[in-house]
Inverse folding.
């Protein structure tokens, strides 16, 4: 059984009410429930956390090594700016997949710069809550193949 750490960054706690025309009406809790069910169907487990603080996310990634087999990460706005998050992902051997609800390449120019992405195995962007599900599928496939 694999354990996947699901991390969501700043403002994603507000999903459901935050700019619903952009992010939809699904809450982060609903996404977490969906991911839990998807992992259990494959006899795996997820642990889901959200933080508005860069340092807390960096800490969780750094400690993931002993306890988790993969990280599913939506860095939110930090995807476009955080070298600390990129270095954290690059400092652990746990495979990380980055996800975004929206298609970051179809929005404002500044969202096209992804600074964490070069350190991850792959990026899923633009499929709403399904980005998390597709990212989890890819991560679990990767973990199972490596086992
Ligand atoms: C996001 C995209 C980011 O540009 C934005 O800052 C977010 C959410 C997404 O999931 O679409 O907070 O990561």
């Amino acid at each position: 059984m694999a354990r996947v750490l699901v991390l969501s960054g700043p403002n994603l706690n507000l999903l459901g009410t935050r700019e619903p025309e952009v992010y939809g009406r699904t809450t982060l809790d609903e996404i977490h429930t969906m991911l839990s069910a998807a992992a259990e169907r494959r006899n795996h487990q997820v642990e889901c956390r959200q933080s508005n603080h860069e340092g807390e996310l960096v800490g969780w990634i750094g400690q993931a090594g002993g306890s988790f087999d993969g990280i599913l990460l939506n860095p939110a706005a930090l995807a476009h700016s955080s070298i600390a998050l990129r270095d954290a992902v690059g400092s652990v051997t746990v495979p990380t997949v980055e996800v975004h609800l929206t298609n970051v390449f179809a929005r404002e120019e500044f969202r096209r710069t992804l600074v964490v992405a070069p350190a991850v195995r792959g990026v899923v962007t633009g499929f709403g809550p399904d980005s998390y599900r597709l990212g989890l599928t890819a991560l679990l496939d990767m973990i199972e193949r490596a086992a």
User: Anything to note?
Assistant: The first helix runs from residue 20 to 23. The chain has one domain: 3-77+93-146. The radius of gyration is 14 Å. Residues 3-77+93-146 form a domain with the Rossmann fold fold (CATH 3.40.50.9100).
